[in-house]
Amino acid sequence: MTDFELKSKHRAMWASGSYATVAADVVAPLGPVLVEAAGIGPGQRVLDVAAGTGNAALPAAHTGAEVTASDLSPELLRIGEQRADAKLIWTEADAEALPFQDAEFDTVISCIGVMFAPHHERAAAELLRVCRPGGTIALANWTPEGFIGQMFATLKPFAAPPPPGATPPPRWGDPAHVATLFGDRAVAVRAERRDLRVDHFGTAEAFVDYFKRNYGPTIAVYRNIAAEPERVAALDAALTALAQRFDVGGGAMNWEYLLWTGRRAH
């Protein structure tokens, strides 16, 4: 698979279902948390990488910052632009080859977005390149051990083989892996594991139905096994069991993520 084919596949995956629904119903609280951790304020030049529909870009713009929201999927950007209640720039862009100048931004953020770029080293290098020396990089990414990391582990046996050289997305939630990606090019690093409380679904079965309808990566895996009813049933059961395992009462779950901040070294 060529790089163009891979990116086209990713674009189509995120355009399937309704990630905008997931962003609004479930993960919206992460954006303001990331903006606060990054210390974003008036007049700062901010880039949100893999911004989706703007869960972090919009709260950043509300602070008075000059925000550019970039994403591989133009469909998600259009939804964000239509819903925006603040002024910002929406730009189609590949996280592994950002169309911006060196040191163009004071702050570079990504909220559960850059983790899905398949080549982590390339994406990390781009985050650093477009951030000015001394500027802030701030990331929120699902951990391998948390619910979404375990969901991807559950999906893996049913999914098509990953492309050569691709790294699993939840590795971005491993502080040791992120330290390897940035090395001594990032200083004043802080890495904190936090939980997002999710009480939208009520039951494990409702979670499975919701993610089968709305979440691109889950939709892609079910399409891969659509002609195999027994495997579909097995995946339904595995995801239901996973949601039940993470239930902390009343159908609520805690989804762990890594909140990481650092400054680009001079």
SSE sequence, one letter per element: HHHEHEHEEHEHHEHHHEE
How many individual β-strands?
A: 8
CATH architectural name = 3-Layer(aba) Sandwich
Poorly predicted sequence stretches spanning 5 or more consecutive residues: none
Helix content bin: 40-55%
Strand proportion: 15-25%
End-to-end C-alpha gap: 37 Å
Helix-strand category:
alpha/beta
If helices are DSSP runs of H or I spanning 4 or more residues, what is the number of helices? 11
Radius of gyration: 18 Å
Largest sheet: 8 strands, mixed
User: What is the CATH C-level name?
Assistant: Alpha Beta
CATH level-four homologous superfamily name: Vaccinia Virus protein VP39
CATH topology grouping: Rossmann fold
The residue-averaged pLDDT reads 96
Q: Domains counted in the coordinates: how many?
A: 1
Overall geometric form? globular
Report on the structure:
The longest helix has 17 residues, at 229-245. Strand 1 (45-48), helix 4 (57-62) and strand 2 form a beta-alpha-beta unit. The chain contains 11 helices and 8 strands. Helix 7 (147-155) packs antiparallel against helix 11 (229-245). The N and C termini lie far apart (37 Å). The chain is of the alpha/beta class. Helix content is 42%, strand content 23%. It has one domain: Vaccinia Virus protein VP39 (Rossmann fold). Strands 1, 2, 3, 4, 5, 6, 7 and 8 form an 8-stranded mixed β-sheet that branches. It has helices at residues 3-15, 19-27, 30-38, 57-62, 74-83, 120-130, 147-155, 175-182, 204-214, 216-224, 229-245, and strands at residues 45-48, 66-71, 89-92, 105-111, 131-142, 186-198, 247-249, 252-264.
